[in-house]
Structures are given as C-alpha cells and as structure tokens.
Amino acid sequence: MAIGLSEEQGMLLDTAREFCRDRSAIPAVRALLQSESGFDAQVWQEIAELGWLGVAVGEAHGGSGLGMGSAIPIVECMGKRLLSTPYITTVLVAEALQRAQSHALCERHLPAIVGGQIATLALLESGDWGEDTIELTATDAGGDLQLAGSKTQVAYAVQAELFLVSATYQNEARLLLVPASALGEGAVRRQTNIDETRRSSRVDFTGATVSSDSLLSGDATAIIRDLRLLGALLYAAEAAGSTAACMDLTVDYLKTRKQFGHLIGSYQSLKHPMVEVLCDMDNARSFVYHAATLVSEASLDEDAESACRMAKAQASEALKFAADRAVQFHGGMGFTYECDAQLYIRRAQWSQQVFGDAYHHRKRLASLLLD
Question: What range(s) does the Acyl-CoA dehydrogenase/oxidase N-terminal domain occupy (predicted)?
C-alpha cells in the first residue's frame, strides 16, 4: 500500500488542525444546529482567504494546483471538529470543470469559486447513490436550454450560487452549470437530515433556462463516475476525523466516570471495544491517505477506484461503531440530545449513506478485485 504525505499536505494538516480547533468548538457546532444555513459565513470566507478552495484548482485560475489529494487533510480536520461547510461540494464542482476541460467555463467560474462562491452538486433524483438513471432533461429552446425535472439531496442548495447538474440532452448524459438566478420561486425545498449539522434540499429545475454554452464538454459519464469516487473519498476523510473525535470524547468520559468506586475505564469490557475503535480509525486513515496518494487529475484507474471504495467502506463503519459505543458507554445520558455522543451517531448515520455505504462499495470492489 503506497502512502505519501507531501510537505504541502503536512503544512495544510497543521494549519487546518489549528484553524478548525479554534473556529469549531462543540458549543459553536451546537449554536449552528438550528440556523438556516448550518454554517458560519465568516468562517467560510476565512476558508476562502486561506486558499483552501483552490488547493486542487490550477494556478492559471487562482488556485495552488496541489491536486485533490491535498484537500484530504483539510476535510479530515473539519470532520474531527464537526465543522460543516459547503467545502466538499464546492471543490467537487471545481474538479468537474477541470476534468471536463471546458476552458471557457473554467475561466468564467473557477476564480469565483476559489474566491468563496458556493457551488454544489445536483446528481441524485431517487436519493439512492447507487442509481444511475437521469430523468432530468435539457431541451433546445431558441438557442438556450430549458430544463425539466428535479434533484434531491442537493447540499447547501439554499446558499449555493452555482449548481452542477446531470441531465439527459439529445439522448446522452451531460453535465451543465445552472446559476441560482435561473431557478423559479420556491424551487428549493429544504429536506430534514438526521445529522443536523448538514443542510440539503430538493431542487426543482423545471422551467429553468440556461445558455447552451453552460454544457460541460468531455465524457459526462466518466466525469460523474470520478466525482462519485472522489466524493466518497472526501467524505471518508471527514468520517475518519469524526471517528477520532468520537473516540477522544468517549475515552475522556471513561477516565472520569466512576461506578461502584472504580473508574469505568478500568473495566476490560469497555477497554477492548475502545481498542477496536482505535484500530478501525487507524485503518480508515490508512485507506484514506492511500487513496489520496493515487488520485490525480487524470481519470481514475482501477487502483484509484479500489482505494476510494475501500476508504469509504472502512471509514463509514469505523464512525458507525465508534459513535454506537460512545452512546452506549455514556449510559442513559448517551441517549439524550444534550450528550455530545448524539452528534456523532447522527453524523455516522448520515455519512455512511452519502456517496454510497459500505455494502455499496464492497459490492463493486468484488468485481474489481475478484473477477
């Protein structure tokens, strides 16, 4: 297993660790749970000023050109502090533009994205990440394109200024950019997530009209495939960070809570599961950084695909197990929303589904590794 951590990635890891610790303490996370946006606009602007939105964007468009692998340390640190922002979806839209090699669209949109414009993906129609059908259609309308159909689970759609939408155009799968200004009134309807640090919506694109040059060039099917794998990798990195934080929360409790005159952390029945959490977390980080080493600006090969799927499967289950143990070990208090363990188990339930759960990825790994 090849794992490489460049000097730039190491510096990003140190900076992100400090930034996320200072900007996203648990009280700040809880304060945002009932907010409309779900994130702090000032923190988002600081992220843009740090250049994090451009780590994978070429220097010609205002980025640093370090590649998608350099976003992994940033996302891991965000996961550890439960710092929710539109970061993942925004960098994935920027990555799609570059992979499509749509030069005019890159020149028009990438500098704005690097500067802090919120962009998001609109790929799902059934809510199932394993579903490949595209029912949203784009048809010619006097030199423009008119859309018909809806997308679901669109992250941060209320705040997004730009949507990357998958559609069927002339009987082919295509990707196109839709500005928020093209949507009709009431087109965005917020959905309820089990993880209240997230925001997602159902977006009705019916009636939206965009110019024909909004279509991305390149093989849309291949780009969507790469986006799904890179999205799985980024959320795996976030889950690995959240697993580490959940483990720390539980261990701190085990070292202070006494029962029958003894610290409960002294009991082997609690020690052994925590060792398993530690091993799962370390395995997840290994898979994540292995995949980060393999991904590049080229279309992902079988090795990179396998690595991304392994990372998502391992990290999803690592966070799920860690969060479940956190709730159980906190006793009756762990089942109350006031206990921070609830934040992690809700994130685990949501994170394991987005971009495919462990079963989804292992099913596809079987054909890659065994056929």
Answer: 6-116
Q: Which of 367, 274, 352 is nearest to 313 (CA)?
A: 352
pLDDT digits 0-9 by tens, 38-93: 999 999 999 999 999 999 999 999 999 999 999 999 999 999 999 999 999 999 99
What are φ and ψ of residue 137, in 5° steps?
A: -120, 150
C-alpha R_g of the chain: 21
What is the per-residue pLDDT for 266?
65
148 and 12 assigned to the same domain? no
Tell me the C-alpha distance between 52 and 87, whole Å: 9
Q: What is the pLDDT of residues 189-231, one digit of tens each?
A: 999 999 999 999 999 999 999 999 999 998 999 999 999 999 9
Chain centroid, CA 65 distance in Å: 20
Residue ranges in the chain assigned as alpha helix (H): 7-23, 26-31, 41-49, 72-80, 87-100, 103-114, 220-254, 268-294, 302-329, 341-351, 358-370
On the 0-12 / 13-18 / 19+ scale of CB atoms within 10 A, 262 is exposed
Asked whether 143 and 183 are in contact (CB, 8 A), the reply is: no
Rounded Cα gap, residues 106 and 123, in angstroms: 20
Does 345 lie in the same domain as 260?
yes
Amino acid at 239: A
